Amino acid sequence: MGTDLQQYRARIGRFCATASRLSSLGLGKNKCGKTNAHVISVRTLILLGFLLSVGVCMEMNKLQLERKSSNDCANPVDSFRLLRAGDVETNPGPPKKDGSKDTYSLRSGSTSVEDTETEDNTILGILRDIREGQNRLEKKFDEQVSAINERLLAVENRLEDNCVNQVEVNLLKDHISILESKIDDLENRNRRDNLIIFGIKESDKETWADTEKITVDWIADLLEVDVENKIERAHRIGGKGNKERPIIVKFSSFRTKEEVWNNKTKLKQTNFRISEDFSLKVRKQRSTLWKWGESERNDGKKTYLKFNKLQVGDKEYKVDDRNEVYEITHRNGKAPKVARETN
Questions:
Q1: I need a surface site. Which of 4, 32, 165, 306 has the fewest CB within 10 A?
Q2: In Å, how far are 52, 158, 163 from 167, measured between CA atoms?
Q3: Residue 312: is its pLDDT beyond 80?
Q4: Could you give the CA distance from residue 285 to residue 306 in angstroms, rounded to a whole number?
Q5: Domain boundaries, the chain
Q6: What is the DSSP string of 173-218?
Q7: Per-residue model confidence as pLDDT tens digits over 102-150
Q8: Model-level pTM?
Q9: CA angle 333-336-338, nearest 5°?
Q10: Per CATH, the architecture of 193-277 is what?
Q11: CA distance between the termini of the chain
């Protein structure tokens, strides 16, 4: 502050010297021929006072601006606060298109250190909560993964057991298929002495003895074969209805049955018909084959059934487990032997 007073005094002295020079330059005479020293002195004093006041005001404003600038630059804490707050743009960029320049103040938009620390603590708290939540999720995820692994292990064990069981099931299926084939073969062997006669009229109170006598007489009359005392049993099959039920005949020997069967051609001009007796499986296969061979018969080809096969010319066909017809291929590549025709 002492330095400022000395500067003021030196400048006032300079103003006084300037005033004295102005007064010396302004000497003159009035109308009476006398000098106007006192008039000049008053005017000079007024001018000097005005200039002095203007100079003092200018100096005071200048000193205030310098002091403000020095205070702003000398306070590193405020600068640090502003830099931490992120509100100071160190590179303001080019001037605007209208030629004006943006001004930036270090104090504009500043945030106190306390507020910054509070915000930092808040952010740290949020991050801490996020980390804790992440840890909980990771723990829960690990538990779920462990549970899933246990379930997968149990499923794998079950699958292994199922694979073993599946192998066993497949073996059992194979054995069952073999057993079914053997049973079907035994059933057909048991039926080989049987014949089924269609077209014989049925009486209202017909008994098994009546049916057997009617059968013996019918075979003797139409087929000209004596089967007296060569029939084990003969009876109607199926439920009573509007249609005449067929008669199934079991002969005492296969030779007698074959003798009757070989004379079936004598029934071509009649309404009677005879057929061999087969198991249900074979009957379904024969029905499928006969329907399949209809187109072959329409083309004029000779077709006939022999057991569970269809003979079309020199080719043989069978039915597989999927009920599809396929041609039988022989190992020697030769046509199969022609068997006797069946109905």
A1: 32
A2: 121, 14, 6
A3: yes
A4: 11
A5: 1-26+38-68, 110-190, 193-277, 279-343
A6: HHHHHHHHHHHHHHHHHHTTTEEEEE-----TT--HHHHHHHHHHH
A7: 444 444 444 556 667 787 788 888 888 888 888 888 888 888 888 888 8
A8: 0.49
A9: 155
A10: 2-Layer Sandwich (3.30)
A11: 143
